[in-house]
Structure formats: structure tokens, C-alpha cells
Amino acid sequence: GAVVSQHPSWVICKSGTSVKIECRSLDFQATTMFWYRQFPKQSLMLMATSNEGSKATYEQGVEKDKFLINHASLTLSTLTVTSAHPEDSSFYICSAQRGTRTDTQYFGPGTRLTVL
Amino acid sequence: EDQVTQSPEALRLQEGESSSLNCSYTVSGLRGLFWYRQDPGKGPEFLFTLYSAGEEKEKERLKATLTKKESFLHITAPKPEDSATYLCAVQRGRGSQGNLIFGKGTKLSVKP
User: Mind listing the pLDDT tens digit for each residue in A40-56?
Assistant: First the structure.
């Protein structure tokens, strides 16, 4: 149980285009989903927290107009990187949490984004 | 400021050579401390959650312990397949939606 999937697993795009990444909880309903970014040899940095049906909460320094998050249902959250630039190239990982704030976060396999 | 520090950054062991990884933390109102394993190019895989000082949890060759200031991940008789980066994260209490603060991880290499 507690499986989280991400799609696509990797994507290459041209500078200036937008890219959408999907995060799904496959066998449970996720009240809260989180989006992280991880640069090479560094740890995970939280970008935003999203609750189903409400606006996402972004961490300081993360541009909400650039990283659009939609938590449309209890099993799906999407991250859209708008007008991507090479500096947005990174490993994006989502996690899903079942219920209470003390519940375990289960992570997806990650999406490698390369912007040319 | 809430902070999580893991040591060592890297650890090389021979197969069968037991050791411990350290995670020290300062956080206001600890809700839980989590250990994850991350293989290259993949998302973190959940290992343990610890909620209170004195708590211990075990899974195969791994054992996690928690005090008021730090947590240890003990690896007994490791095998090459235990090679990975081990991440420690804390979950804050009051005023938090449950988001995690991660340490930088310990990269473990186990040689046969």
C-alpha cells in the first residue's frame, strides 16, 4: 500500500515552453500533497504544499506564477513549470500524505526535467 | 531556526561491518522524525517514523532510535544492497501542515 506515481519520469524541453508533471496516489486518498526539488548531491527542498480543492502554499523564494500547482482531486496533483529556463532543470519529486499532519509522506519516483 | 544535520556525509563499509548514521535536529515542537532511503535517480523510500524520545524501530538490518536531540540509524552486518543515501527528516508541529525538513543525507557504500 501507499504507492505514489509520477508522470513523466523524465522530460526534455526547449527554453520558454511549459511542462506539466502529474503526481498520483494510487491506492489511497491524499489530503495533502507536497512538491520538492532536488539538485545534484543536495537534499530535498520543499517548494509547495497543496490541499485538495484549495490554493497551494508556496515556500519562500518559490515563484507561484512560475510553478503552478493544481490539486484537483484526492488522488491527483499537478505541477506546471511555465516558461521554463535552463536553471529550472532539476529533479522534481512529489509526496502524498493520507490524512493528519503527523501522517507519513510517501514519495513518488521523481521527474527529471532538462531545459535546453 | 529549525535544522537537521546528518553525519557523516559519506560512509564506506565492508560487507558485514556494522555502523551507525547520525541525525541531530533542532526543531520547535517535533511531531515526528522520519528516515528514508534514496537510490540514485529515484524518490525517497519510507523506512521509519519515530515520535518520542526512547522509541526504537527495526526492519531487517536497520534499527532507528530517537533521543530529544538526535536519532541514530544502526546498520547491522550490512550487505552491498544496503548501499544508498539515507535521509533524515523532521516534521514540525504547531503551525505546520506537516511538511518535512530534510537533512543532506548520508551516502552509504557497502563493498563486498
Answer: 888 899 999 988 888 89
